[in-house]
Design brief:
With 163 residues, the chain is of the alpha/beta class. 42% of the residues lie in helices and 21% in strands. The chain is built from 6 helices and 5 strands, in the order H-E-H-E-H-H-H-E-E-E-H. The chain has a 5-stranded mixed beta sheet, sandwiched between helices. Helix 1 runs parallel beside helix 6. The chain is globular and about 45 Å long.
Length: 163
């Protein structure tokens, strides 16, 4: 199903209903979106039946100490990398025991980008059972909030494609 991203509340409501019908629980580990994905899902009535856990692991310390991301991964590849995103979602899955787990790490800007890791680079991981998707996204939006919103929408699309 492709979403009409102009109607995020309808999208989220459909996703919550779909998760409820399948009796799936979902959990998030967010970095650059700062909890925006959790806010989006908890804005829907009935979300408490499917939303299990939301972690905002914004700092490297939080990724290491709470999500148990190996410090060597962050030192070698950086916190904004497919390797870190994968470790985040796999470890979240162990912690939450949810059916569907989502991790997000990226650079929302306006500062912090480099030539190899520009502002708008975001990795999104979705894990359901043995199925794992890690996507590299380059969002072209200029504003921080717009990059965060685009990330949430992309994450919703990925979750929907996997359930």
């Amino acid at each position: 199903m492709l979403y009409d991203f102009k109607k995020p509340n309808l999208i989220m409501k459909d996703l919550v209903n779909k998760l409820q019908k399948k009796k799936f629980k979902i959990s998030f580990a967010e970095s650059c979106t700062g909890g925006m994905l959790a806010v989006a899902i908890t804005s829907i009535s009935g979300a408490s039946k499917i939303f299990n856990l939301g972690l905002i692991t914004y700092s490297n310390d939080a990724k290491i100490n709470i999500l148990k991301v190996n410090e060597k991964i962050i030192k070698k590849y950086g916190a904004v990398s497919s390797e870190c995103c994968e470790a985040m979602v796999k470890n979240l899955s162990k912690i939450s025991k949810a059916d569907v787990n989502v991790s997000i790490t990226g650079i929302a800007g306006p500062k912090g980008g480099t030539k190899s890791k520009p502002v708008g680079l975001v990795y999104i991981g979705v894990k359901k059972s043995n199925k794992l998707i890690i996507t590299k996204n380059i969002f072209k939006q200029k504003k921080r909030k717009d990059i965060q919103k685009a990330t949430v929408k992309r994450a919703l699309y990925l979750v929907d494609s996997l359930i």
